[in-house]
Amino acid sequence: VQLVESGGGLVQAGGSLRLSCAASESIIDAGSVGWLRQTPGEERTLVVGWSRLGTVYAPSVKGRFTMTRDTAENTVYLQMNNLKPEDTAVYYCNIGDAWGQGTQVTVSS
Length: 109
Fold this sequence. Notes:
The strands form 2 sheets. Strands 2, 4, 5, 6, 9, 10 and 11 form a 7-stranded mixed beta sheet that branches. This protein is mostly beta strands. 0% of the residues lie in helices and 55% in strands. The chain has strands spanning 3-6, 9-12, 17-23, 32-38, 45-51, 54-57, 65-70, 75-80, 89-95, 98-99, 103-108.
């Protein structure tokens, strides 16, 4: 399966962005879905992850970010509200073993 991300960009602190991750195949049977982010020199870290056991958000984004899955459109979304400069990173979607290409999110103070 191929994943194509979109929706990143530059936003002021307090603003919102919605990231999209469109899959080339059905995601209805995916065992795991998530978004991770990475800053230069750092490892990729989990932002939000879904499995059949439930959904887990990183403490730093809980209450501000929401992941949704549209199985009819084979697309996963990450709604990011009240963005902070520390949210600046490249965001990657992950569905099963597949990864998106990454999209840059930059939050200015």
